[in-house]
Design brief:
The chain is an alpha/beta fold and about 250 residues long. It contains 9 helices and 7 strands.
């Protein structure tokens, strides 16, 4: 497993499951994986959108879309079962599904806190443990968890999101220690300001403030997260586990 034949696609004959895969970063990751020879199963809370996304990626021979609520362990079981029944294995798991419910701690409701912790942290735990159960039997696999720079530095108005994203780092490292001897790697990505529908809905004043913190002077693109996810999912990173890669344009180094 050390080294890679550059003449063949990096993910040839591998099956990847991507949560939150109907749009944004999740879709960009799935698209990059397909370009590198993978078959993908997309999970998303929006069942119609995820079916459309799967069709766009090539349809049933290449991509399958499944409605999935990552806070439900039964839904995550069904998502992984769809990957095994459609393509025979689960080689890569990308836990990307997420939501924001930003508010200052003074005004945040208990429900807003619980929702964000549930989707990000419990959802990532569900995806990691359920995928690991399959990968353990195969004696190989790569799990990529999406944290955030907000989980490193803490951002005002995001006590829920920062807590969840910091938790994903701890979860990933603990899981990496449990699974390393079974040939399963677990790594995390911390994106910074990435241009998506969600971030572009920000008030201009907040966007400008965030931009001023980025040494590279621009927001990142979803394809730039996808490239790092590809690295962590492929044998290019075969001696890495428990790592956290910041993809931020230098913000908060």
């Amino acid at each position: 497993m050390n080294g890679t034949d550059v003449s063949q696609p990096l993910l040839e004959n591998r099956t990847a499951v991507v949560t939150g895969g109907a749009q944004g970063i999740g879709y960009a990751i799935a698209e990059r994986f397909v370009a590198e020879g993978a078959r993908v199963v997309l999970g998303d809370l929006d069942g119609d959108a995820v079916e459309i996304a799967a069709k766009r990626l090539g349809g049933p021979d290449t991509a399958v879309g499944v409605r999935c609520n990552v806070t439900s362990s039964a839904d995550v079981d069904a998502l992984l079962a769809a990957a095994v029944s459609s393509f025979g294995s689960v080689d890569i798991m990308v836990n990307n599904a997420g939501i924001t419910r930003d508010a200052t701690m003074r005004t945040m409701t208990e429900e807003q806190f619980d929702q964000v912790i549930d989707v990000h942290l419990k959802g990532t735990w569900n995806g990691t443990r359920k995928a690991a159960a399959i990968m353990r039997e195969q004696k190989r696999g790569a799990i990529v968890n999406l944290s955030s720079i907000s989980g490193k530095v803490g951002l005002a108005g995001q006590t829920n999101y920062s807590a969840a994203k910091a938790g994903i780092v701890g979860l990933s490292k603990a899981a990496a220690k449990e699974l390393a001897h079974q040939g399963v790697r677990v790594n995390a990505i911390q994106p910074g300001l990435i241009r998506t529908a969600m971030t572009e809905a920000m008030p201009q004043k907040i966007w400008d403030r965030k931009m001023s913190e980025i040494p590279m002077g621009r927001a990142g693109e979803v394809t730039e997260i996808a490239g790092v996810a590809l690295f962590l999912a492929s044998d290019l990173s075969s001696y890495m586990t428990g790592s956290v890669l910041e993809v931020t344009g230098g913000r908060f180094m």
